[in-house]
Amino acid sequence: MDAKVRVILLFLVGCALAAPAFPQTTGAPHKPVLDIHSLDTTVDPCTDFYAYSCGGWLKNNPIPPDQVSWGVSSKLQDENLVVLREILEKAAEPAPGRSANTQKIGDYYAACMDEKAVNAAEMAPLKRQLQAIERLQSKKEIAAVAAGMIYEGVLFDFSSAQDFKNSEQVIAEVDQGGLSLPDRDFYLLNDSKTKQLRKAYRAHVRRMFDLAGDAPDLAESESHAVLSIETALARGSMSRVNRRQPSNLYHKMGRDELQALSPEFDWDVYFEDVGLPKLASLNVADPGFIKAMNAQLQKQNLASWKSYLTWHLVHANAAYLSTDFVNADFAFYGKTLQGARKIAPRWKRCVNSVDNDLGEALGQAYVERTFSPEAKQRALAMAKQIEAAMQREIEGLPWMTSATKRNALQKLHAVVNKIGYPDKWRDYTALEISPDDELGNVERARQFEFRRQLAKIGRPVDRGEWDMTPPTVNAYYDDQKNDMNFPAGILQPPLFDPAADAAPNYGDTGATIGHELTHGFDDEGRQFDTQGNLRDWWTPDDARQFEKRAACVVDQYSRYTAVDHIKVNGKLTLGENVADLGGLLLAYMAWHRTSPEKNAIDGFTPEQRFFIGYGQSWCTNTREETERVRAAADPHSPERYRVNGVVSNVPEFSQAFHCKAGSPMARKQPCKVW
User: Fold this and answer.
1) 423 among known catalytic residues
2) Residues linked to residue 172 through DSSP beta bridges, in sequence order
3) Torsional class of 658: left (φ above 0), alpha (ψ -120 to 50), beta (otherwise)
4) Known catalytic residue: 516?
5) Strand, helix or coil for residue 127
6) Which of 16, 365, 534, 556 could form a disulfide with 164 if both were Cys (CB 3.0 to 4.6 A apart)?
7) What is the pLDDT of residues 338-393, one digit of tens each?
8) Options 3.40.390.10, 3.40.1280.10, 3.40.50.1000, 1.10.10.60; which CATH number does 5-20+37-85+357-657 get?
9) Which of the following is catalytic: 163, 230, 483, 516?
10) Active-site entry in 183, 230, 266, 580
């Protein structure tokens, strides 16, 4: 989420030092945090530490057919799905005495798994909305239809958000949207690969219109209209790099000002229909996009807009329609775009749907089964150790003045650590779930979440809320809440091994905690103050010193090749790269201060085991197609650079592995921000 929530993709946090093991499924194999069989000792660690740490793992863990990448964390996520499946299959049994939450998650799963009923329904669940589109008599009526398609990604995104300048309040927000490819660049770049992808995308749109029953000639013209409108919206969209500057996303204005930006769209009707008739002001994240949208409302004819609206209705719901739609959707978005060889089995897709729509109801059952209070306390203790290391680092920075240090320390001391699951669970009482209405359940869940978001507008921020579900194998930092969030799903082996020595645990999980903490002080996070307001608390000279050090990181990563001829976008990935580097340094500081380890294990010193633990946390095989998508749209660098790019800047790594000056993993002029 731009400038609001920072996420470390499919990664982890763990807890500190040896302790009783986390609960696991009976019979689960031991999964150490440092696995000597994952190494490739034929590689010089000073030349390519990623290959040295992960060569064995990469060889022994090919990507499964239904996956687009396969790493330590995605493998754990896949194992979590098995646990969730067991929970849901039991919940789906219509036994008397089921709790309300058990009934909801069980019935949702049962309806999703009833493929026969879904196929029998065909397009019927979309009939009402399709008729609304067909009845359009003028482009002025598009606002009313768009209000009824709030979940289908039509034209723009509308929801609630924390006010950048008053972080205690929630305001309405409209932002760019309306695209079906992962990023604006997929519409605009003209290299051969992107052109081929656009050609395949248009063929896919045409195929979906065919499945919806349109004649071939009509489907052809409809696909042309969709691509034309989306390309124009892409041209009007702000780039991901520019969206990394928070001030670019804050334009609070009155409702009349928004109407003046786009007079062709009837905002009065829209706000009335979504349930906010008295909305007076909101944040317009990208005014340029709203102007571009207005230009297309003027330019494109009504028939083209009907095609666009119909496409987004079908596209957004394809995964919940009959098998023909599901397979066609996978053929492009799974296979062509990302390189998957086979669609995931239906049970996996259904488990993910429940987690998406009823995540905290499912999460309660998951936590009861897998997450102990002791694990929560151990994780919190490690976070505190990392924060203490950050305090020492700030206090000792030679380039930062005392005035800025005081502000930085104040922000650090205000960071909130949220471990495992929310203190207060979400209430799903108002959400109706049926055991025989899959798409209906999806629509009602979307409506429930949208109303929940809109109900926040004009009210104080709920700082206890989470943006991830408890079973998620991931973690994030929120700029405006100034908190770190570590779901229960990642608090388990092999991301932390309580039987192992402390060194790899700190290199692995400690570096992740440090990563999330550093996000509060990266190029975006540093622009928010202790309370999460967008406010400049830096002296001009300190800001210049930070930018100089950040520029070193941009230059370093911009030289790496992501895939084919495509370079890593050093500006897009800056925040994550700074967090990776800062996170590893903080973890090393905390480990060195707290660990008494002196002896070698398996022939590796404690220092070497620390860095191997870090390297092995990133072991990942990725399909070429997905690498290309990530290069354009992902703010994270490829895993090999999240290892090599970081350790090459760390003198302690060179000392641990006796790297000669000038070797690839010992940069002559290392980058260091924090």
Assistant:
1) no
2) 160
3) left
4) yes
5) helix
6) 534
7) 999 999 999 999 999 999 999 999 999 999 999 988 888 888 988 999 999 999 99
8) 3.40.390.10
9) 516
10) 580
